[in-house]
Specification:
The protein has one domain. The chain is α+β, with helices and mostly antiparallel strands. It is built from five helices and nine strands, in the order H-H-E-E-E-E-H-H-E-E-E-E-E-H. The chain starts with a helix and ends with a helix. The protein is elongated and about 75 Å long.
Length: 275
């Protein structure tokens, strides 16, 4: 077989092999046969955040109410939280990349147990990125502090619907506690309610698979470099921003909107520098 023919064969093989992952819009969820998989995943994440946020708000109001009973003035320290709300930003970033680096060695046997080897190689890669941005809003008064809430009884922790991409404690209760606890200490901070505050949680899940086949044919051997002849990887980044602030009449205030906007801008800035 001539060298040019082998080069054409290697190039054709590379192009065909790379034609899958990285050339199509990545799926939010690896196909499981359910056309609503992506929507179900988003709903689970939203419910997870809502569950933790609801408990955090109810616990804060309950603690504030109980603390007021033992204070000389019998006044609550963070009554403004009753009229607050939260904006939730959910960003899913999916990156898929595949590469092929085939290598061919043409071996020509010579006399006296010697041989002459000609090396051929090539590489190709493809990458596709998909970013999904979603925004939601919760009104504390109507959604978390309704008729089913009794400020005299300590709230029970809820059990969020976990999933493979976001599971466990997101520390939202701790976040709300950090934002309110300083108001319980006399003279620590002004009694005036803050404008708004936010917290960002990021999850990165990376999956990688590579295959390096070794073929030994008559006078031809192949290899694939240090990363393997075939390499496919997928990275999923889940970014959750929770901003809390005033909400009048069930509508986010300008302060809450601004805090949420700046938090998202900061997140986008740091995401831009991530490989």
């Amino acid at each position: 077989m001539k060298i040019k023919s082998l080069q054409r064969l290697a190039f054709f093989f590379t192009v065909v092999s790379i034609s899958g992952c990285g050339l199509h819009t990545p799926e939010v969820v690896i196909s499981d046969g359910d056309p609503n998989s992506a929507s179900i995943l988003v709903n689970k994440i939203v419910n997870h955040v809502r569950c933790e946020l609801k408990y955090a708000v109810r616990y804060t109001v309950w603690y504030d109410t109980q603390n007021a009973l033992i204070q000389p003035d019998h006044k609550r320290r963070v009554p403004w939280i009753d009229k607050w709300g939260a904006k939730l930003a959910l960003k899913l970033t999916l990156k898929e990349k595949s590469s092929v680096s085939p290598g061919l060695s043409l071996i020509n046997p010579l006399s006296m147990s010697q041989s002459y080897t000609t090396g051929l190689g090539g590489s190709a890669s493809s990458q596709a990125t998909r970013t999904v941005n979603l925004d939601f809003f919760y009104d504390f008064s109507s959604e978390f502090l309704g008729k089913d809430f009794d400020s005299r009884v300590a709230p029970k922790k809820c059990t969020p619907p976990g999933n493979s991409l976001i599971d466990g404690d997101l520390k939202i209760a701790e976040f709300v506690d950090m934002a309110t606890f300083p108001y319980y200490l006399p003279g620590n901070v002004s009694a005036k309610a803050p404008d708004a505050t936010s917290q960002e949680i990021e999850f990165v899940i990376a999956a990688d698979a590579n295959v390096t086949p070794t073929w030994k044919l008559i006078r031809v051997s192949t290899s694939g470099g240090s990363t393997g002849m075939f390499d496919v990887n997928r990275t999923t980044t889940n970014d959750v921003i929770v901003s809390i602030g005033p909400a009048f009449g069930g509508v986010p205030s300008d302060d809450l909107k601004e805090e949420h906007f700046l938090a998202k801008q900061q997140s986008n800035f740091f995401s831009a520098g991530r490989p």
